[in-house]
């Protein structure tokens, strides 16, 4: 009897018939020796999907509560447009009257139409009855008067001219209501839920010229989140609009006694304007104010500092100045407590996936790297290497021959900030960093023999 922990020395006995054949044994040993000089041992790869997590944050940055901002608004939202991260949200999905923030959709469509070559900025527009009878903030367009698309566009975005918005809508689509159909289609395409338009200006239905009101009852409606989505689309698709929204004043007609003043008092350029310098905000270059009795005072603003752009929306404030003071609180909250950090560099080796398997190649694996960089918005001052970043890896088997840069899989990074509900996620391709030639027949034959016999033991 063996004592506990005592090993038994039992000789190995092969039960397969070929074990007693000396010629076969010699061939096996020869193939193993030769293959060892021709090829490396095939790598062992983990499962195609893995999870890894970086070390937990050593000292989480404490964010102030939203309530501590003491915002006096109906709804508000703060978004970082590159990652889409929502940093602040108050009734952000509830629809309210947007007033002249509606004109941003008009501006988007006009810019898109120019970009497609359907119209030109230099096209001359003849003012029709609808525009000439439009009230509210306006440049007093007269029927038969002519202006270029660019002139009307600038008056609309800088001075919030309702009549200019109507004139542009009619020029692009033939009638304002046909243009409105396109506005609603664009809102749907952008994913702007809780959004509907009845005109190009943002006026309440009863304030529109009676002959040109839509037959159906309804009003312009947008949520703060919908407004932020629209501003994001403008910045991404038509960033040149910021060159217009940042103009502090504009001489519409040479005969006008004074230039049109931008309704946005928070422009950084107003720092030297005695009338508005108390509202001037560093880095702010857009986007659009709004007011009607039903909407209250609204403002969609965007500013960029240290390479990070933020979009803020406040709706339903109680005064003209309040929409700017509340916007400052929202933007300060973002710039004071968050920043965009790179968590993975482009063309770098990702942790947990250094290579991908290769079939029929000179080698059995190839190094892989990330195709793009990954950026997340993080608490200001946080060390990216210490953030709880999760990764999900999927690696494909490549068949030689192939060139460097071929897709070899994907890696998905996810991160959730403490105190923020939304999870940030970014998937990038893993690509082969080297090219791979097809292996010779002798190499591939011995590799197959190696793999066959390796599976027998």
TrEMBL record:
Pathway: Cell wall biogenesis; peptidoglycan biosynthesis. Substrate binds at residue 288. Keywords: Carboxypeptidase, Cell shape, Cell wall biogenesis/degradation, Hydrolase, Membrane, Peptidoglycan synthesis, Protease, Signal, Transmembrane, Transmembrane helix. The chain crosses the membrane at residues 21-39. Its EC number is 3.4.16.4. SMART domains: PBP5_C (SM00936). It is an enzyme of class 3 (hydrolase). InterPro entries: Beta-lactam/transpept-like, Peniciliin-bd_prot_C_sf, Peptidase_S11, Peptidase_S11_C, Peptidase_S11_C_sf, Peptidase_S11_N. One of its GO terms (biological process) is regulation of cell shape. One of its GO terms (molecular function) is serine-type D-Ala-D-Ala carboxypeptidase activity. The keyword Cell membrane does not apply. Pfam families: PBP5_C (PF07943), Peptidase_S11 (PF00768). Residues 338-438 form the Peptidase S11 D-Ala-D-Ala carboxypeptidase A C-terminal domain. Gene3D superfamilies: D-Ala-D-Ala carboxypeptidase, C-terminal domain, DD-peptidase/beta-lactamase superfamily. It comes from the Bacteria. It catalyses: Preferential cleavage: (Ac)2-L-Lys-D-Ala-|-D-Ala. Also transpeptidation of peptidyl-alanyl moieties that are N-acyl substituents of D-alanine. The active site is at 100 (acyl-ester intermediate), 103 (proton acceptor), 160. PANTHER family: D-ALANYL-D-ALANINE CARBOXYPEPTIDASE, D-ALANYL-D-ALANINE CARBOXYPEPTIDASE DACA. Belongs to the peptidase S11 family. Removes C-terminal D-alanyl residues from sugar-peptide cell wall precursors. This is serine-type D-Ala-D-Ala carboxypeptidase. It comes from Brevibacillus panacihumi.
